[in-house]
Amino acid sequence: MKLSIIVPVHNMVEDNKLRFCLDSLVNQTIADYEIIAVDDASTDDSFEVLKEYESKYPWKFKALRSYENIKQGGARNKGLDVARGEWVGFVDSDDWVAPDMYEKLLNKAYATGADVVGCDYNMTGEQSMKIGRVVSNNSVEQTGILDYEKYKLLVMDPGSMVIKIYYREVIEANGLRFPEKTFYEDNAASPIWLLCFSHFERVDEPLYYYYQHDESTVHEISIDKCNDRLNMGKKLIEDARKFGFYKQFRQEFEFAFSKLYYMNTLFTYMLGVKHPKISFLKKMAKGIKEEFPDFDANIYYQRAFDEEQKKMAQMNIDSSFQFLVYFKLLYFYRNHIRPLILKDKRTE
What we know:
- The protein is of the alpha/beta class and 348 residues long.
- It contains 13 helices and ten strands.
- The chain has helices at 17-26, 46-56, 71-82, 101-112, 148-156, 168-173, 185-195, 223-242, 250-272, 278-291, 299-304, 307-318, 320-347, and strands at residues 3-9, 33-40, 61-66, 87-90, 96-97, 116-124, 133-135, 144-145, 164-167, 199-211.
- Helix 5 (148-156) runs antiparallel to helix 7 (185-195) and helix 7 (185-195) runs parallel beside helix 8.
- The protein is globular.
């Protein structure tokens, strides 16, 4: 069998999300593939929909079920345990793919000898095959036969996992799996996975449709999700050491950790959580300083963030109370006071 497509599913019946996703998968232009859909303790009719597709397409659709909510990583692991394909791809159950996505990715793999192949994706707010806002995933500099310089780039910017296919022999030979019962599992898994592969190519087309809606993981920020981000930052470093990658790519992992654990979490927490707590801000500051005391001297960090971001990041380390007050006042000024000032100037 050429390909296994693994789809974790949790409460996706509403608004036709699940059916739109599955319809795009059962109608791929390739033959000899399987879809493994894993229901992750859904409380709606998601599993019944999966059984319906299994009954309709028994030769290529398999419905599995977890009665415990193990989240996307756990559901993907269940799929990997039974996958038979030479290649493996992952799709989120509220997204969908172009009819020829996997044909094009596989053709690129066979033509180049690559063991991992990716593409770009569309950001869209409607269920259609109309091209939305194209997001380029990975760069030309990251592709080809992977060497030290390319691996460094991939550690810092691995790109999305759902727009790639992976050679399953490499997955199994290295015992690659996902963190379970957590959000943001890709953030910890993706860099480690790519370091286990040897040849990466990409198709320069947006073949994956990333559906933006109110229930998307990225749209709902909570303290639990922020804690998951912190844990996945720690997991990334833990696995880098476990797989023997840490020493060779220490600078790159330091940057990846500081971005995931601290910078991204710091600002999404402040913007997404209604009542940010000083205790959590202190926890982030303590964690980054314990793992990488000189993270702000990292050359990649210096280049990636602007002066204001770096100033506020340091302010939180020096005094979380001062940072909290400063951020709230700045946010209030930019969103309420400044627009009024600009409006008055335009009417003068």
